[in-house]
Amino acid sequence: MERIRASWERYDHLWALIIIIFLMANLQMVSAKNQMSVNIVNEVGAPIYVHCKSRDNDLQQQTLLDGQDYGFTFRANIWGTTLFWCGFNWGSYWNIFNVWQDIGPWSFDHRPCRQCLWTVRRDGFYRCEMFGTPVFVHPWNTTVPAPNALVENGTF
After folding, report:
1. Of 20, 146, 152, 150, whose CA–CA distance to 95 is shortest?
2. β-bridge mates for residue 117, sequence order
3. Which residues cross the membrane (predicted)?
């Protein structure tokens, strides 16, 4: 019995090293699966204003001329609570909505998109996975928002 224990103790450091390598490989895989991007393309035919945020990041207002795009990358957290929203303004038209929202913990293979492409057109907003077929998601709002609603929301 002592002989078996001695042989296991001799290889304790080797087992610890194997476990560390295994954990690092899994963390690397999870980290790679958490790399996301959002790209917004202006196809309105006129300049639009875009202001994107998360709870932790204010990406500042961007002015996109017709045909221009704007994008950002981020790592989704493991808790499944990552959320980015954007406010859009084009003349008297506007809208605010979530451009990327995680769907819960350990949802690596079921997220709405890894490389989200939002195309902004005169009739509204289309979303697809990069190089996919855009699907209509939101129209523009034409009603006047409550006074300071966009400012209070932190969008503009």
Report:
1. 150
2. 39, 128
3. 12-30
